[in-house]
Write the structure tokens for this entry.
Amino acid sequence: MKNLNGKIALVTGNSRGIGPLISVALANEGAIIVGVARSEKGLKETQEKIKAEGGTCYSIPWDLTDTSSFRNLISRVRETVGEIDILVNNAGIEAYSEFENYQKEDIDSIIDLNLKAPMELARLTLGTMKERGGHIVNIASLAGKKGVPYNNIYSASKAGLIMWTDGLRQDLHGTKVNVSVICPGFVSEAGMYHDAGVKPPFLLGSSKAAKVAQAVLKAIKKNKAQIIVNQGPMKPLLALDQISPTFGDRVVRLFGVPKISKKRLKK
Ligand SMILES: NC(=O)c1ccc[n+]([C@@H]2O[C@H](COP(=O)([O-])OP(=O)(O)OC[C@H]3O[C@@H](n4cnc5c(N)ncnc54)[C@H](OP(=O)(O)O)[C@@H]3O)[C@@H](O)[C@H]2O)c1
């Protein structure tokens, strides 16, 4: 999709973190934003910011773990502004814990929000997108490429999101709908990692949140299958990890990732 002007973009997680930056970037290209998250206050702040820059943004407060309610959500979007052209599945949560200390609710909420919600939103919008054309962007993580110690439910959800995107892209070959996945590493300046206040590993570094927003634009405009947003070359290391996961584990330890994860364990 080369021209985003007038396109309707549903952006989940639009109340804080990386989502508002994605919305602003899309709105600057002329897209009409429909922001979804639970916090009305956060959604309103993003909406005001976009309006102040001359863009258009609507907000629909919704709990996206309740996937059975999404028909109503899509109806609300349709009544409010029209059919969705661009779906950005950005809302996500993580939780650090030793595995036996997780609650069942942790497993359910992480999988529901990070994996089932993107699938269900896509399922309900693909019919009209196939007729009109569209693009789905899933915000995954490098944590879906290599398991993260003490945050492995999150890793599983993001690995699922990456592989679902991979299969769906092949389903959609030859249709008017494209799908991309973005895999950021540690993100600075906004978002869940920034809010945790933990320094990124020296050897891995971090990327500015605005880079994720730029990656979303690039994915849509150039129809990219996958974009990794990270300082330094990650693809050769990921390839080596495919050959030997235990070698990958050693690299992850060398980078100091388990130490950082331990600092974030639930007390
Ligand atoms: N930050 C990073 O370092 C990083 C790295 C790699 C990937 N990512 C991915 O980037 C995406 C955005 O993350 P972020 O860092 O911006 O996270 P964040 O700052 O924690 O924001 C998460 C967003 O998701 C929304 N959300 C959470 N639970 C929800 C629910 N039940 N229903 C509806 N919305 C809900 C939040 O809004 P409410 O609380 O108002 O509902 C918020 O808008 C996520 O998918 C994350 O996995 C982030």
In short: The mean pLDDT is 96. Residues 13, 15-19, 37-39, 42, 63-65, 90-93, 113, 139, 141, 184, 186-187, 191-193 surround NAP (CB under 6 Å).
